[in-house]
Every structure is written in C-alpha cells, then in structure tokens.
Amino acid sequence: MASSKDHRSAQLPLSLGHTVARGAEDFLVSPCNRIAADWIARWPNWSSPALVLAGPAGSGKTHLGQLWRARSGAELVDPMRFDLEAAAGLIERTGAAWVDEADRIAGHPDAEAALLHLYNLVQAAGGGLLLTARTAPGAWPLGLPDLASRLKAAMVATIDAPDDSLLASVALKLFADRQLAVGEEIIGYLLTRGERSFAWIAQAVDAIDQAALAAKRPVTTALVREILTPSL
Description:
single chain, 232 residues, alpha/beta
C-alpha cells in the first residue's frame, strides 16, 4: 500500500473503529464456502463430535464460528490457557465448545493435551466441538498420537479460494461495515490490482478507508488509484 505525498504528509486519522456485521444474513454463501456453511446449518445433526473449518485468513471461518456459537450455545475455549475444571463445567452446561485458530496448538504439548481433554469431554457429553484453522489437521505437526487419531476422524470442511463474485461481495460488505458507499467501478478496480484473496481485499479496504479519512476525501476511483500499488 502506498499513498501520494499529500497522503503521507497528512495527519493520521483518529481510528474510531467500525462494526463488522456478523449475523446469519451477513454471511455470503458461494460455491467456495457452501459446504462449510451447510455443516454449520446442520447442527446438531453432525456425523462425528468434531468439525474442522479450514480456510485462509479472512475467509469467513470466524463468522461461521460465531453463527454456530449462537446456534449451539458453545463456549469459546483457548487451549493455550486451558483450565480442565472450568472446561468440564462449561461442557456440562452447554455440551459444545469452539476453538478458533486451533492449528496453533501443534508442537505445544500442554495445549495438545488440553485439546485432547476437551475433545473427550465433548464426546462424553454427546456434544460438538468446532475447530477453525487455516489448514486441515492432517497438516498440523502434532506430537500427541491420540489427538492426531481423533482429529483424523473429524469432519473437515475446506473453504476454497474465492471467485470474483464472492470477492466483490466481500469488498462491498467491508465498505458497508465502514458506512462507505462505493460504485461498481471501484470494486472492479480492486479485483484487478492485487492478490485474489479475502485477506488482500480486507487490507485494501482498510487502507482506502484510512486514506479517505486522513485526506478528508470521498472514496473515488481516483483516490483508490492513488492508494493502491502493485506491491499491495
């Protein structure tokens, strides 16, 4: 990302934040994520205790996790800071748990053991365990064979690379979350300027929003052209 000299010398805007819409109606379903979305909608009729949603950054895993949490009453659990007694209590109450960025436990013996305990608690309760991660468990360098065995049997729904239609819809949603109305020409320009990924689109929208605030200018094609570079 780069800006013109005027933008570089402009006072940085005060970040007031923005609200990200995370309701069921805000999740954009397309062929690349339909299977993942379908599995979330099928709860509690899962064929195994655990479901893994695997996909790149910004692909909607957290959004789906929040939708499932609302449906199931699941608790968000961090296996890197695991309390077995507390986990047993919450599983007794809800029967369900969600671990976000679950792949980070790989190579950490205590965290791997914690996730194994959590899996066993959920299975014994007849509940559900949702794991969201960038890759499927088969790619995690796990050191605990029992955990690897259980995750091997888990359902895995992969969120694939997005198509143009979904990228455009995601960009429109991200602008709308910031109360920014943009035209089709701006969205089309974005889709030709960088990586075809959710993460790149999110980074680009954020940079455009910050630049518009700093320069006190509306979001136009001219402004977007000034902000985006081939190295974005």
